[in-house]
Amino acid sequence: MPPRTRRPAPARPAPELNEAAQLADQLQAVGYTKRDIARIINRDASLVSQFYTKHKGAAFVPALRHALAAVQSGHISEVSELAALAAPHVTRRTTASGARARVRAKAVLITPTGTGTGRVAAQAIASGSARLRPLIAEAVRQNLRLAFTVRLGKSGYVHPSGSRTDSPGIRRDVIQRADHSEERSYGSATTGGFDATDFAHRVDATGGDVTAAVHQWLVEGSRIHPDAHITHLEVRTWRPRGA
Predict the structure, then answer these.
(1) Does this model's pTM top 0.70?
(2) Is 41 left (phi over 0), alpha (psi -120 to 50) or beta?
């Protein structure tokens, strides 16, 4: 009896792209990369990939529509200008009932010794690192000192790593990353760190935007260029000796 020949399985139709992915495709068709699109909506490039793999992106459709319209009209082509145009149209995700979806955030934890740490990455930074604000407020209440670590592209820093003109001064406070970014720490228990109350005033002056407050402090101190983009931010607290 001749062996049976297996018939090839019918090809599965490609999943239909959601509107965010379709708009991203149209932007890529005219020369923009996924990283450019991420910058336009002020998010991480991995989220743009999830438009295709996990069908995310509904909250960014209005922003992407406005950006694409501006490109197609020929009025705007620079990514920074498209990001400024898109920003007012980025909307928060909603639940099935139409209410705003809650953003997951870790509870503020400061130990009895005053030690606390809060760290945020791209998506939280895009919303002003709001989850770090309660940590700073608690540091003020307990009269703690604080320090912070920032990560951004190497070209965003004014001084080379290890420069004594910059706050770290020594290379052990600098971490090099494979993506050509760099983490630098500012303040420590050894140097005394920063007064939490003064820093909280800076945050208040930026409307509660912790990222903007840190960015402004770094620019004022000639540590980073004004157009540098912070991608990660960490705040640490401790109780000063003798307090």
Answers:
(1) no
(2) alpha
